Amino acid sequence: MSISAKYFPDEPTAPKVVTTEFPGSVSVKAQKDLAKVFDARAAYFVADYEKSIGNYLVDVDGNVFLDVYAQIASIPLGYNNPALIEAAKSDKMTRAIVDRPALGNFPGKDSAEIIADVLKVAPKGQDKLWSGLSGADANELAFKATFMWYQAQKRGYTKAFSEEENISVMKNQAPGSPELAILSFERAFHGRLFASGSTTCSKPIHKLDLPSFKWPKAQFPSYKYPLDKHEAENAEEDKRCLAIVENLFQTWSVPIAGLLVEPIQSEGGDNHASQEFLQGLRDISLKHGALFIVDEVQTGVGATGKLWGYEHFDINPLPDIVTFSKKFQSAGYFFHDPEIVPNVAYRQFNTWCGDPARMILAGAIGKEVLKHDLPALTAKVGAYLYSKLEALQAKYPKYIQDLRGKDRGTFIAWSLEDGAARNKFLSDMKTVGVNIGGCAEESVRLRPTLVFEEKHADILVAAIEKVLSGY
Amino acid sequence: MSISAKYFPDEPTAPKVVTTEFPGSVSVKAQKDLAKVFDARAAYFVADYEKSIGNYLVDVDGNVFLDVYAQIASIPLGYNNPALIEAAKSDKMTRAIVDRPALGNFPGKDSAEIIADVLKVAPKGQDKLWSGLSGADANELAFKATFMWYQAQKRGYTKAFSEEENISVMKNQAPGSPELAILSFERAFHGRLFASGSTTCSKPIHKLDLPSFKWPKAQFPSYKYPLDKHEAENAEEDKRCLAIVENLFQTWSVPIAGLLVEPIQSEGGDNHASQEFLQGLRDISLKHGALFIVDEVQTGVGATGKLWGYEHFDINPLPDIVTFSKKFQSAGYFFHDPEIVPNVAYRQFNTWCGDPARMILAGAIGKEVLKHDLPALTAKVGAYLYSKLEALQAKYPKYIQDLRGKDRGTFIAWSLEDGAARNKFLSDMKTVGVNIGGCAEESVRLRPTLVFEEKHADILVAAIEKVLSGY
Asked: Which fold would CATH assign to domain B101-354?
């Protein structure tokens, strides 16, 4: 029995479209009610999570969408997954919700086990974690660890802070508050708080009017597709971009303490990195004594056909920090070097230090992911889907350009000729019962759950063809 | 029947101390296990939340502590409160946990109701909210709203962004990423991320080695206690500090978009603000076209004897933004001006836009707080406790200095002569069965739950006297 059939005996066998407008009239009314108390302008429709199941998201009008967007790439095992419902109804979860601890000061008797369960899904060799609350938070906590580590390398890990550092930091001045930078890339997305926002560089709307740290942006490779027909050019592109990174390390006005990269730039257009590029970054970070931070907020937990996106590559030595959120439903960073734990307590600290309730859920997700080897499933289903999309690409080359994600599970994307064409396509897909998302200005990204199977892929491909055949 | 007796028929009637060392041997072993996967150096002991009940926190050694610290001021209604357990076990909560929505894009059919329930506890006149995940996050989201509002005042709320803004922001440069500041105070605590950390100014350990925004810090009044014997001096202190704020607005190198203040600086030593000071700040913010942001992360939700700390004062016009977290178990900010919603969608936005699971809990907390008028209870119990502490102060003036929090519910604090004496006192309180916390270097802060009653106050006062009588 397939995993989705096992989890969801009542999963619909096909989408059902009952309205002619999207959102439908019931949703429009519900959005108006919501708008009285909340900024609901970005809502596509109002969902009925009670009726949603597996890979199908139901709206309040009764439309049943095959969902290949999955709450912006963050539903791991389908809606109302019974294994997660069991975890959510457990006494352990109830206590984590009603007796939320200040985890750093008053951990509970089950805290070590809860955290160890999360670590069972960590990338190989990354045996420690620090917990946070969202992808942006995870990245900023990683930045904090990075800056503390960087200064500890200069100062000596165990050396006490100087009087001058203690005084100047209270004025937000050096040496206590040093000028240091995180290097990231054009088209990157790492979150929307102030430091994470300073590393994000995909769309102006994310950060207009916000003050920022003046941190450097390198260029991320833009490969020619299909990759196997442009190997030489793409190798040149890697070299060009690595030279930019090296140059920034040598010339930037303040020291660069960390190098931050997504293995696949996700919000920024599903721009994939190569083995050579990622290893090149690792080498540069080592050469300059900076930490190598891999942002796996979107690529983590199985969708690419590996548990973690960077595990498609042989990166030596291992990345120093790997951040997570989204599909794990819990956020934070993994690491292995004991010196990434700051030298004294209360430096990487806050009231809650994460959320054990969300960590319990992450442990339950991880258990299912490992038990059913879901990365193997996404690899298999992704290969099947990719080949179908390649065939569609041959038929509709104008609407499926630069197909990306071969051998990357269901983490697949393609481009249309411009933003208007892309937006029309996303919108038209609703008329055939598919909820699908975009990235960058002109790309479509597939982000189904980890229990998206060949039967769902068939429905998706048929729906795409139905839309494209009408163009 | 008292509210604690109603919620907790099995609540202990007194602390029980079973170890001679703190942490006890079972806790020490559990901390060692935890340390393999997590930075556990700040742990006081390992708690047994299953056995904890009401105002009593139990550790894994079997010590039963009367808890007047309550997870750094964040347990609202006592451990294992039955009303919250009911909310945690509801189907609505289960769905919020397993089907966590991207709330901005795909709100659920119950989202409007969930948010409206949270708003029932909002400060009067603040009828909208934006949701986040922690106190630091709440403040930074408020900063984002503030900067967007400030620029909209200059640009025109509905005016489109210029090409120059759209291009420069991607380079983290003005005009798209303008140089703007938030003004905060010395001894303030607003969180530990990079922007919130830039406004925090209570202890070096919070921010050493972290880059920061160069934002101005004014001085917060240091009053002489008891207040009623130093009215003239304290009025002068208000004037002195307000003049500093006014001067910073006039002279700071970049425009100040927001003025951020805690009604009682909590981490920074329980430094109270007066009516005159807060109204003075409100006036200055209006005069200079900045938003007035009140950080109620620690003072909010009833502990001060009012629902919100600033409601002790008559501030006109109302604060623009009020941030919350901790006792509400959900985080974000309240506001009332429609123009604090940015002009277009996707500006104040992120994947999750808060956590409906935590909002459901906040709604349940709010319902109990209103139903049982818990601010009235904390006012009554606080007055009772304060008078007992005043009597102790007369007896042990060296160990209870500058008693603070008269008419502020159970939000009470005092100072000892130095950090060593304070730390010894906190530690000694464990030997008599009380878990109690400090703030600043030399202060003790009381942060019991909202269901801390006179009977608990009697136990606390007797325990304090027992410790002090041995000095």
From this structure: Aspartate Aminotransferase; domain 2 (3.40.640)
Amino acid, res. B142: A
Of A31, A104, A177, the CB nearest to B212: A177
**Dihedral pair phi/psi, residue B359, rounded to 5°:** -70, -35
Do the Cβ atoms of B373 and B381 come closer than 8 Å? no
Scanning every residue of chain A, which has its alpha carbon at the shortest distance from the alpha carbon of B30?
A109
Residue located via tokens 């708008």:
A35
Q: How far is CA B458 from the centre of its chain?
A: 26
Domain positions in chain B = 3-20+46-83+374-469, 101-354
The sign of the dihedral angle between the CA atoms of B204, B206, B212, B213 is negative
Is there a common fold for B3-20+46-83+374-469 and B101-354? no
Active-site residue, selected from the candidate residues A48, A200, A326, A328:
A326
The string of pLDDT tens digits covering residues B260-315 is: 999 999 999 999 999 999 999 999 999 999 999 999 999 999 999 999 999 999 99
Per the DSSP assignment, residues forming a β-bridge with A332 are: A131, A324
Helix, strand, coil abundance in chain A, percent, nearest 5: 40, 15, 45
8 Å CB contact between B84 and B9 = no
Q: Which residues of B260-291 are buried (b: 16+ CB within 10 A; e: fewer)?
A: bbbbbbbbbbbbbbbebbbbbbbebbeebebb
The predicted pLDDT at position A114 comes to 97
* pLDDT tens-digit readout, A74-124: 999 999 999 999 999 999 999 999 999 999 999 999 999 999 999 999 999
CB atoms within 10 A of CB A402: 19
Phi, psi of A5 (to 5 degrees): -65, -35
How far is it, in rounded angstroms, from Cα A150 to Cα B409?
Answer: 45
Instruction: Provide mean pLDDT across the span B342-351.
Output: 96
d(CA A455, CA A52): 18
Class for the domain spanning A91-371? alpha beta
Is A1 a residue whose pLDDT tops 90?
no
Q: Looking at the domain covering B3-20+46-83+374-469, what would its CATH class be?
A: alpha beta
| Span B141-156, pLDDT tens digits | 999 999 999 999 999 9
Q: For this complex, say whether ipTM is above 0.90.
A: yes
SS3 A180: coil
- Which of A49, A63, A74, A353 would best serve as a mutation to test chain B binding (most B beta carbons within 10 A)? A49
What is the helix (H) or strand (E) element at residue B389, kind and residue range? helix B374-395
N-terminal to C-terminal alpha carbon distance within chain B: 38
On whether any CB of chain B is under 8 Å from the CB of A174, the answer is no
Give the sheet arrangement for strand B256-261, strand by strand: B128-132, B331-335, B321-324, B291-295, B256-261, B181-185, B217-218
- Tell me the CATH architecture of domain A3-34+61-80+374-440+456-469: Alpha-Beta Complex (3.90)
Report how far residue B57's alpha carbon sits from residue A108's, in angstroms, rounded to the nearest whole number: 11
Closest-CA distance of chain A to residue B115, Å: 7
pLDDT value of position A282: 98
Q: What is the pLDDT of residues A278-291, one digit of tens each?
A: 999 999 999 999 99
Give the three-state DSSP class for A134. coil
Angle at CA B12, nearest 5°, toward B9 and B15? 165
Helix (H) or strand (E) holding A57: strand A56-58
Distance CA A246, CA A248 (A): 5
Cross-chain CB nearest to A71 (options B100, B112, B134): B100
A268/B contact by beta carbon, under 8 A: no
Supply the DSSP symbol for A77. S
According to DSSP, the β-strands at A56-58 and A64-67 are antiparallel
In three-state secondary structure terms, A64 is: strand
The residue whose two tokens read 């009637």 is B13
> What does the DSSP 8-state code read for residue A254?
S
